[in-house]
Amino acid sequence: MILVLGSINMDLFFTVSALPVRGETVLCDRTEMRPGGKGANQAYAAARAGAKTVFVGCVGDDPFGPVVRAALAAAGCDTSQMSVVDAPTGTAAVMVEGSGENQIVVASGANLAVRADSVPARMLGPGTTLLCQMEIPVAETEAALIRAKAAGARTILNLAPAAAISDAGLAAVDILVVNEIEARMLAPDGESVSAMARSLSGSHHLTCIITRGAEGAVVSEVGGTPSSYPAPPIVAVVDTVGAGDAFVGALAAALDKGSSTAEALPRALVSGALTCIKHGAMTAPTSEQIDAFLRQ
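-> structure tokens emitted (296 positions)
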């Protein structure tokens, strides 16, 4: 079982010809609303990839709350541990240009009310994977990781968006997923991606996965040699929003089913890539769609 403790938002998408620079106003012809939030995106991806998934988070008592909750439930995610709080549902403004690149601003709202002790003790144990990100209060993420580790659960942290985390928090992480920017927050400047992965793995005694977008991912396990995994070729990229979350969710799902890291990485990369050919953050493929792509 995968427990996802994290954020859930309503995303407002603006498709623009080019991303604005500082002080610039850019016009577009319309906006669209779609569910998002890093925690919810990853829970959606894990459930779509076939894992029993429970999402723990908060929404507001407003029109957005039931909509984003229903999106997770439709993917097969258990939403019984979600809470309604006296704050607006998290909201993100997402600007996407023709190349698929994006800029995002998030108003956290109800996500700031998420607490580590919202995860029921009965759900933590050796058969559970706790998956966290950095869009709820950092202290709560750290407390949840430490609590899950002590209970014997597998712990995965996607250090995104980039934020500082304590040594105690990192010590409770089994698998750390970062992009190159996030990796450089933790590793010395000037190192290659492989060197950063090996350094983070060795210094914090964890498996480190550094995602590199179209260049795939680099993985370093404790005491091992870093390995590179290529990204699958995708030519019709329309929107990169949520690709990293789809990667993490599918990774967690494969590991939860008993796959090794080497077996899980290709599935995670395909999930992330296929998300890029659709608009929106919650567009991760199903397990069957991942299988079909890998058979090509």
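The chain has nine helices and 14 strands.
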